[in-house]
Design brief:
By secondary structure, the protein is an alpha+beta fold. Helix content is 32%, strand content 27%. The chain contains seven helices and eleven strands. Strands 1, 2, 3, 4, 5, 6, 7, 8, 9, 10 and 11 form an eleven-stranded mixed beta sheet that branches. The radius of gyration is 23 Å and the shape is globular.
Length: 295
């Protein structure tokens, strides 16, 4: 009876926190409009120009707000700041699992991803459902879940779910080469890796790089391990190297695995919430899709 009451209390707490999260998200549009109005007033005052007509009725109120703001409060904070508020303060803890009945190659890929991501642990999927896994991870303080999928024995999907409220990013994988497939592979260090994000220039690119970046802890300066996410035409190339510096030369040794990633959806909720809002989705069948680059 006590256990059931404790579980019910936890469910109610998460439901309340989720409602607060969605409410803050709904306020983003109003906050953005208010921020843009204050920026217009700041520019007009700084340049000595006339106050814009649409701001004249609110000059006194906006001026008081501007006077009370400092460097930390004058910039607009969006929902991403709440999702990753503890990033860099607390080290992320990651759970890696697979789809049901994984092949030996998918299991090997999950094991290698456990070596790639520090502070990660692999769990055999067994008969556990996604809601059961999510609830267990929330109770244990897990920060992110990685789920890998396959088609005919080849890894072809990766899901990155941030806890406790999201977001959840869905990636398609291709050209997957495992570590044990690489000839004369270099020894792998377990030091925290340095991260390189190349060509993530759009707002969606920054969002994607944040989702991937925050599953890794902050590395030490002397770490000889580097992980690269290089974007080219919305395909993200994942590469994993160890490096040695000799004078002015830097030698790279690939330690694997390597694969290509294609983002196709970002949801605002967690993986078990089918009703969560879709923040962005790939539309490959639109007439202009070949000309556009999202990342």
């Amino acid at each position: 009876f006590c256990f059931a009451r404790g579980a019910l209390t936890m469910i109610r707490r998460y439901a309340r926190q989720r409602r607060e999260y969605l409410y803050r998200k709904s306020l983003e549009g109003k906050e953005k409009q208010e921020y843009e109005r204050k920026q217009k007033l700041r520019r007009a005052l700084a340049e000595g120009k006339d106050i814009p007509t649409e701001l004249q009725d609110d000059v006194d109120r906006l001026s008081k707000q501007i006077q009370l703001e400092d460097e930390n409060t004058q910039n607009m904070h969006d929902i991403v700041d709440d999702e990753y508020a503890n990033a860099g303060i607390e080290e992320p803890t990651i759970l890696i699992t697979t789809s049901r009945n994984p092949s030996s190659r998918l299991s090997q890929f999950a094991k290698e991803m456990r070596l790639v991501v520090p502070n990660a642990q692999k769990m055999n999927r067994g008969g556990h459902t996604i809601p059961e896994i999510i609830d267990a991870c929330k109770s244990k303080g897990i920060s992110d879940i990685l789920v890998v999928h396959e088609t005919r024995g080849q890894p072809d999907g990766l899901i990155v779910c941030h806890l406790p409220f999201g977001p959840t990013a869905f990636f398609a994988l291709s050209n997957c080469v495992l570590r044990h497939d690489i000839e004369d592979v270099a020894p792998l260090s377990l030091a925290y890796p340095h991260l390189i994000f190349h060509n993530f220039t759009s707002k969606l690119g920054e969002r994607t790089s944040n989702i991937l970046k925050y599953i890794f802890p902050v590395p030490k300066d002397d770490s000889k391990r580097v992980i690269t996410f290089a974007n080219e035409n919305d395909y993200i190339s994942f590469r994993h190297h160890m490096y040695e510096k000799e004078g002015n030369r830097v030698e790279l040794d690939e330690v694997g695995p390597r694969f290509e990633m294609k983002l196709y959806q970002i949801r605002l909720g967690t993986l078990d919430q089918d009703e969560a809002d879709v923040e962005w989705a790939l539309r490959p069948f639109m007439r202009t899709s070949r000309k556009r680059q999202a990342l």
